[in-house]
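Record 1 of the preview.
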Amino acid sequence: MSAYLITDVEITDESLYAQFREQVTPVIESHGGRFVARGGEIEVNEGAWAPKRIAIMEFDSMERIRSFLASPEFKALNDIRTRSSNINIVLVDGV
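->
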């Protein structure tokens, strides 16, 4: 069953975040993930949530997402990610 990693990102340093974005994509792909949505227009239809930038990645399973998040390749990017953004991450099982 597919599973999804959803991020809500506030970018605080655009040029540094661009480096993260460029480097994280092959890491996601090497763990079987793919982007289903990345950036773009956000329209809040109801409620008070005000996301800045949304990315949704699809993986084969929750275990594959957890493997990606725990991987040395992703952890090596944590410094760039935390210096360039504030991020919320949720994992969701698909149907």
